[in-house]
Amino acid sequence: MKLLPRTKRTRAAALGAVALSGALVLSACGSDNNTGSGAGGAQEDGASDIKCDDAKGQLLASGSSAQKNAVDQWVKDYTAACSGVTVNYKATGSGAGIQEFLQGKTGFAGSDSALKPDEVTQSKKVCKGGQGINLPMVGGPIAVGFNVDGVDKLTLDADTLAQIFAGKIKTWDDAAIKKLNPDADLPDTKIQPVSRSDESGTTDNFTSYLADAAPKAWPHEPGKKWPIQGGQSADGSSGVSSQVKQTSGAISYFELSYAHANSIKTVDIDTGSGDPVEATTANASKAIAAAKVTGKGKDLAMELDYATKEPGAYPITLLTYEIACDTGNKKDSLAAVKSFLTYTASDKGQDVLNDLGYAPLPNEIQGKVQDVVESLS
């Protein structure tokens, strides 16, 4: 499919200078069932702009729960235009999504962290003559949500967060927390850290932040699996956010929209660069704008600076990728994969993210993603 030259979009006005500098931000929530089928005849506004080409049948995908809200909207709009396609995206978590993709069960996977070298090697068995590649679609802040009676505003730094999640700081009136919050009325309530029980790209990004920004307090290697045994845990971002909502003294990490949806207060991060930084999409954009493409060839994996000290930059961020074969995609799903991802990476697909609490890809990265999607075979 030949893509038209990019044009000035209305979303630029909404994003302002942040978008023009190349911002990516994300937050997400939603249900786990995203099955959609096109509505014959009656199409929503803009649906006629979606190019279905030869796409037909059922497109299966799974993975990241962080992008869930975006995928819900994309599926709704896409299937309204392409009545011959049913798209079913399951928010199983990044780890499970990658495994299903590597087993050849899905057309693409969603992941909040790029494929590891051994996963790329495994993908060559599924992608005949090619390999799995990372295509960034959205990015954004990982909020640290807390539930402490009488405390509406809380500031923590990386070292204190690492000690809290490692179980070394045990009560909310600990001296380290008091030092960062001299005006807060901190109770002696026991701290209840909650981690993800499933393998998660959100966990991978959060532990990468702790390892990079507080290496002495957090000696664990980053990864999708939570590295510490014991303590409270729950499945998915919806699970950990619900646990925080109902547990006094709880604290956990999840995408920003889960905090908004559950009215959970979030931590401001002291990065050592001046004023503490609030978890907002605009502040995450400042950190993500400096991300660099590290993937080779058609792979667009990117590297974030979790230890950034850029004023106003929120450091705990993630990028969500769609993972597909560069070549060797299954013949029965290739047309649907290309058509659907062409839409999600298009101006139309990216524009819908604003109203969902997401921000579009930077122009430069969006253009690269479009080119790669067009070349999938």
UniProtKB/TrEMBL annotation:
Phosphate binds at residues 64-66, 94, 112, 200-202. GO terms for cellular component: ATP-binding cassette (ABC) transporter complex. InterPro entries: ABC_phos-bd_PstS (IPR005673), PBP_domain (IPR024370), Phosphate-bind_PstS (IPR050962). Residues 192-208, 230-242 have a biased composition (Polar residues). Keywords: Phosphate transport, Signal, Transport. It holds the Pfam family PBP_like_2. Residues 55-348 form the PBP domain. It comes from the Bacteria. This is Phosphate-binding protein. It comes from Streptomyces coryli. The lineage of its organism: Bacteria, Bacillati, Actinomycetota, Actinomycetes, Kitasatosporales.
